[in-house]
Amino acid sequence: MKQLDTIFPGLGRFALATALLATTVTAAFAPSAVYAQQSWNNVLAAAKKEGKVVLYSATPPSLGNRLVAGFKKAYPDIDIEFTRGPSGEILTKVGQEQSGGVDGADVFISTELEWFRARAKEGKLLKPVGPEAATWPAKYIRDGSVITAGLEPLTIVYNTKLIGANPPTSYADMLRPEYKGRLGTSELASTLLIAWYDWLEKTQGKDYLQKLRAQNPRLYNGTTPLAQSLAAGEIAVGAFGNITAFKTLIDQGAPVKYVLPNPGLGFEYAMGGLAWSRRLNAALVLMDYVMSKAGQTAWSGTGEGASPRTDVPGAIPAAAITAWDSSAYPPDVVNKYRAYWSGIFK
Amino acid sequence: MRRQVAPQIGWLLIVIVVGFAVVWPIVQLQYRAFIDGGSAFTRMGELPRIGDTVRTTVILAFLSSALAVLVGTFLAWCASLLPRRVQKFGELAPLLPLIVPAVAAVTGWIFLLSPKVGYLNMMLRQLPLLSGLEEGPFDIYTVKWIVLITGMLLSSFVYVFVHTGLKNMGQELEAAAAACGASPVRILLTVTLPLLRPSIIFAAGVVFLLGMGQFTAPLLLGRTSRIDVLTTEMFHLTLRYPIDYGLGAALGFPILIAGFIVVMLQKLALGEQRRYVVVSARSKYDARTTRWWAAGVIGVYLLITTVLPLLALTYVSLSPFWSGSLVMTELTTRHWKSVLDNPVLVNAVWTSIKTSVIAIAILIPLGFGMAFALLQSTRIFKPIRMAIDFLATLPMAVPASLMGFGLLFAYTRPPIQIYGTAAVLVVTYITLMIGHATRLQFTTLVATGQEFLEASKACGGGALRSLLQILLPLCRKGIGATAALTFVLLFHEFSASLMVRSARTQVIGSVMYDVWTGGVYSEVAVLALIMVLVTVIGVMIAVWIGGSESLKKI
After folding, report:
1. What is the pTM of this model?
2. Which superfamily is assigned to A2-151+269-323 in CATH?
3. Which of A116-125, B208-217, B273-282, B392-401 has the lowest mean pLDDT?
4. Which residues does chain B have within 8 Å of residue A81's beta carbon, measured at their own beta carbons?
5. Yes or no, beta carbons of B420 and A84 under 8 Å apart
6. Beta carbons within 8 Å of A254's beta carbon, 6+ residues apart
7. So what CATH class is B47-315?
């Protein structure tokens, strides 16, 4: 806060955030606008003084580690602390930090898009003010401060040692008799999962979930533990997965392959700078890095996902991914669906 | 008058401070269960499969504690039959599972008994009789195995109490029975076990409470197979924002009531201990015959509970990823390097060590003071002594996971908002362990007797000088043992830590869970082995401070 006061004397934290945003809102909605280089230089200088930035992210460890390594390289004067966790779990921690005034996350990345939008409407998210925000596609900045940092398709995964010549290619294949007791799927670890199960019912038939349950699937807390079990051979097929969670294992020689089902669903990772953070300037710098070509190449240049940018080599085209509509899942819908799903799967 | 009142103020201060730490979180939390006309209980009734959850909790508590009592008592009996050559190591061996944290042991067992790719299962399938199987013969992700593993983990605690009881018991009655022609089994059933009743009842109560609040095994083994107990349901609540504390309190209420009932029953059942004193309680008369098969039993126990899980952890820690193959050529140290290079994981290890050591530094003098207050010879107002007795008992009656949930609620809001700092871990550890620290040091003080202290006072020594020069040196071994055991329990603490940790203030158990749910299993194995290594070092330091005899006192 001290540094911010230096840059904007006499302004309080929120007044300052508003002031910062005033510059950026224009940039966010009018890409041709010129961002304020002088202000950004001040942010960079203040971020260096803050010396550290804390990132909480629901992305799989390998992706998070790539971002951390890239940021360290780009900003060697700013330490970065990275904590990973499932979307819902890490969101709880962020909520507790906010209500308890605890020194915690500065930047948060998760699939809980609606949470970000609600905070943005309350003015609790920082608006990006860096050079990258000026050219970031307007479609991928919601409410002025919720940034879509990456997109990924959901996949079906299988163990190549256990599944022979006829691998699964669609969600209908999950109901094959030979997969009974050899299947894994995810618990409702985040709202994305709720949307996915809901989407499955809508596209595969009303009784699909009951039939899936009859396959006696193992329930994992998200894709990462499912990936470990699949690689070990505890299960042969995973109905829910994303490429990032499996890529590292595949690179290490694990007998795992993924397929993109058609029809399929995708999802977005939302990123926000938290206005109650203790290191506001460093948060802005990290956000800017993630939006940069280098950050986006670290994120999706390996072919694991899509970038809102069009200049990232190796990334899947963003237009190829149909992301779930988070606005269709407000808290009351989520709670009702949770009870409905638990009635079937628990 | 002033000389009489001043110490009472000190005791009263202890009651207020410890009372606040122990009672406040529980009262505040339970209050949330009963406000709004008890709507939290209605929500609890609406949870899917809550009936199954309660049933599994009760089954786990009863069966795992019964198994632990059987195994622990049998081990203690075997230890008493050990031939002299292996007696020293053999008596310590059943304690070695305590060195392996529950979370590490359960992880090791998953690697061994996962139905399809568990190493032990795969080896068993090589046997001619089982060669047709594609999976199994054992499935660790079942209630049966959660009970078995919990029972084995708890059996060491039973061994501690029953073995001590057996050591302190004179052997005259057994010798008399033998002289009258009774067989060893008859002596065991008609003489030894009835005499050991106080130790067995106390141990049964302790492990029943631990079984009732069991969290680690159901969390790691039950989650993927839809097996829940009350404590895991509570934990799942902490993963959803905003946390429904009322519902958590309602879930914890049956455990709390069971805890109180067990502690009351223990006190009632053990009321008149003099009935169990044998003619010469500390007799050196050694009448028991020795048996080599007893060493074999202890060896098998050690192999199952400690050696096999540690071997599995070591192998997976050196594998590129957990796989169902035993190819030694692919071994790598990559995951060790990755863990040791990861500042979050290394910081968690240090936070665990620091918070445990700080908590012990506070617990030992505080527990010593409370234990001193409980001595009959200490001049203290009766209501204050009763309050201290209650405060030393309460934390033992409340499972760590429930206490952790209460502490999370209490310390995320005013007046003491310390969530997100290391202080919340220290306070949690003190709250959890104050009972143990008091009871263990009370035993030491009772065994020390008052004679030396009175002699010191008679010679003109002041209270402080008597304490520093007489009492503390006499209690050094007991304090060393208390410190060692408390370090082991705190460094291994998982249930409460997982509840109160924040994303940035982590201990080794909680980051291990995070790596378990979001990382690489080989790194989980590395962390588990680090936990074991640090525990061994911690115990060695405590033993070095307390003297080698203190290990026996554990």
Report:
1. 0.84
2. Periplasmic binding protein-like II (3.40.190.10)
3. B273-282
4. 343-344, 504
5. no
6. A231, A246, B320, B321, B323
7. mainly alpha
